[in-house]
Write a structure and sequence with these properties.
Belongs to the Fmt family. With 313 residues, the protein is of the alpha/beta class. The protein folds into two domains: 208 residues, Formyl transferase, N-terminal domain (Rossmann fold, 3-Layer(aba) Sandwich); 95 residues, Methionyl-tRNA Fmet Formyltransferase, Chain A, domain 2 (Roll). It is built from eight helices and 17 strands. It is elongated and about 70 Å long. It starts with a strand and ends in a 5-residue tail after the last helix. The relative contact order is 0.10.
């Protein structure tokens, strides 16, 4: 098919590569404007833009697609581009811009979204992290026919991905990205054969995956150890979980932890023990064992190394 691809981060790049490998004609890629990155805050292209440039594909980076919005000239230029390209379909993956109705209506087969959850569970911005945080045993990707709502369109195809007890958001992201690439390729192949029937999302089971907030990084030890351990995995790598330990001025990042099935006869946040096996923290329900940590300005350290350089007050 002749398609336009709209996406920005690594999750989207993997789908873009899968579509190119499947032989689809992609004359235009749309992605977010370059952002400052790194210590020097140098303007850096998105992973999707870099992949498109490497493939010699035209790239558009409008700040908005709303013809009546803050950047109407950029939206109008994008419209001219899309009309010139005349795609069969637009594939959207973590693009970062809201698509107004004129975009949804322009491709012959509309716009298809690769969403990183099994809809209608975890509509919204952070489905990968929220699935881990909630203790879901599985998630997946849904290929959805986009409409004007927030991830409310009809479903075309799903791929299930399990979530294990030690799965981090980074690991789940990578697994879902691969699944998303496979799913969109399979969806387009089926559409070419006329073999897919759109399915409306059920009204039951709708949940929303709120955008991640840096304020969530701080672990609240009044919560249960099980929830805190899941949050450590859900926020790895972004925004990264953190905790305050005695004897240190700054919070410490926690990259790996586990919930122990034992009672904590101390106030939440108290250090129960600290040795090469782990740092045990009392919580509102159970004990959280810290296993990999990072001091401010330092490197990640396994707990046996960390405790050798830490003197609790």
């Amino acid at each position: 098919m002749r398609l336009v691809f709209a996406g920005t981060p690594e999750f989207a790049r993997i789908a873009f590569d899968a579509l190119r490998a499947a032989g689809h004609d992609i004359p235009l890629v749309m992605t977010q404007p370059d952002r400052p990155a790194g210590r020097g805050l140098k303007l850096t292209p998105s992973p999707v833009k870099q992949a498109a440039l490497d493939a010699g594909i035209e790239v558009a980076q409008p700040r908005s697609l709303r013809l009546d919005g803050r950047y109407p000239d950029e939206a109008a230029q994008a419209r001219e581009l899309l009309e010139r390209v005349a795609p069969d379909v637009m594939v959207v993956a973590a693009y970062g811009l809201i698509l107004p109705q004129w975009v949804l209506d322009l491709p012959r087969l509309g716009c298809l979204n690769i969403h990183a959850s099994l809809l209608p569970r975890w509509r919204g911005a952070a489905p990968i992290q929220r699935a881990i945080e909630a203790g879901d045993a599985r998630t997946g990707v849904t290929i959805m026919q986009m409409d004007a709502g927030l991830d409310t369109g009809d479903m075309l195809l799903e791929r299930v991905v399990p979530i294990h007890d030690d799965t981090t958001a980074a690991q789940l992201h990578d697994a879902l990205a691969v699944a998303g690439g496979e799913a969109i390729v399979a969806t387009l192949a089926a559409l070419e054969q006329g073999g897919l029937t759109p399915v409306r999302q059920p009204e039951d089971g709708v949940t929303y995956a709120a955008k991640l907030d840096k304020a969530e990084a701080a672990l609240d030890c009044s919560q249960s150890a099980a929830l805190l351990a899941r949050r450590v995995r859900a926020f790895n790598p972004v925004p990264g979980a953190s905790i305050r330990l005695p004897g240190l001025d700054d919070p410490v990042k926690v990259w790996r932890a586990q919930a122990l099935d034992q009672a904590a006869a101390a106030a939440p946040g108290s250090v129960l023990r600290a040795d090469a096996q782990g740092i045990d923290i009392a919580t509102g329900d159970g004990v959280l064992r810290l296993l990999e940590l990072q001091k401010a300005g330092g490197k990640r350290q396994p707990v046996d190394v960390f405790v050798r350089g830490w003197q609790p007050a």
